[in-house]
Amino acid sequence: MKLFEVLPAVQAFLSQPGRLFIGGSWQDAADGRRFAVENPATEETLTEVAQGGARDVDAAVAAARSAFNGAWSLQSPAQRGLLLFRLADLLDQHREELAQLITLENGKPIAAARGEAASAATILRYFAGWPTKIEGSTLPVSPASGAPMLNYTLREPVGVCALIVPWNFPLNMCVWKLGPALATGCVAVLKPAEQTPLVAIRLVQLIEAAGFPAGVVNLVTGLGAETGAPLAEHPDVDKIAFTGSTQVGRLIAQAATRNMKRSRWN
């Protein structure tokens, strides 16, 4: 795709450096570093984004924890679903913009990128329908003593989820992980692949526009060793979801097991 074919909204987006999103605030990395994002088809620099580090990860996890203990825990299941439906509508409204960002930073053909952008809203609408349908159950028991007893299960959110996504489906990998986390009342720190952070940044801008409370979704862009590693081993992260290479998955598994995090690898 030539630059003159790009939407004005995408050109405006690329004209500004990408920033971290922590606690409802767009900010530079703590040490001010940035890294370049290239178009793999032309090797031209598209823009620069914040290169987060361990201090930024700490701030993002703290913001997520605060939101989990505060405003987000007060949201009803119906309210969570409404926010996800609202976000899905925004993804539909900005579909071509998202598709062009995918093509520019990922290199996939625009037809494939448009398919990915179109399916993102469908994925979110699926998860948006779940919050009001997740329920516990009561269990009949017959204690030997004959004393009355009530047993029941209660499903509760896990807490702070670290979501590390790869470059091959840079938008859909984000919504595949964010959708179930937010639907079930969890909060998130999202770390996109360093090759494809732009569509994740635009997604989080739309999450902010949808009205999610500050700190519910946080974004830390950066290199794997400097952001992914401290996120995986962070003591206040309750669950980690990772999609990527076997080699990196093993490293994340080792880091997660040091404090017995719930983990999911694909």
Account of the protein in words:
With 266 residues, the chain is of the alpha/beta class. It has a single domain, classed as 3-Layer(aba) Sandwich (Aldehyde Dehydrogenase, Chain A, domain 1), CATH 3.40.605.10. The protein has helices at residues 8-14, 54-69, 77-93, 95-106, 110-128, 172-183, 198-210, 224-232, 246-257; strands spanning 20-22, 25-27, 34-38, 45-50, 137-139, 151-153, 160-164, 187-191, 217-219, 239-242, 262-265. The strands form four sheets. It has a five-stranded parallel sheet, with helices on both faces. The two termini are 31 Å apart. The mean pLDDT is 91.
- Please state the structural category: alpha/beta
The mean pLDDT is 91
> What oligomeric state do these chains adopt?
single chain
Radius of gyration: 20 Å
What is the highest CATH level, the class? Alpha Beta
Q: What are the segments in which pLDDT stays under 50 over at least 5 consecutive residues?
A: none
Our estimate of the beta-strand percent is 15-25%
Largest sheet: 5 strands, parallel
Task: Spell out the helices and strands N to C.
Answer: HEEEEHHHHEEEHEHEHEHE
- Please count the beta strands (DSSP E, at least 2 residues each): 11
Residue share in helices? 40-55%
User: In whole angstroms, how far apart are the ends?
Assistant: 31 Å
Number of domains: 1
User: Do you know the CATH architecture?
Assistant: 3-Layer(aba) Sandwich
Going by CATH, the homologous superfamily would be: Aldehyde Dehydrogenase, Chain A, domain 1
How are the strands ordered across the major sheet? 9-8-7-10-11
CATH topology annotation? Aldehyde Dehydrogenase, Chain A, domain 1
The best one-word shape is: globular
What is the tally of helical segments?
9
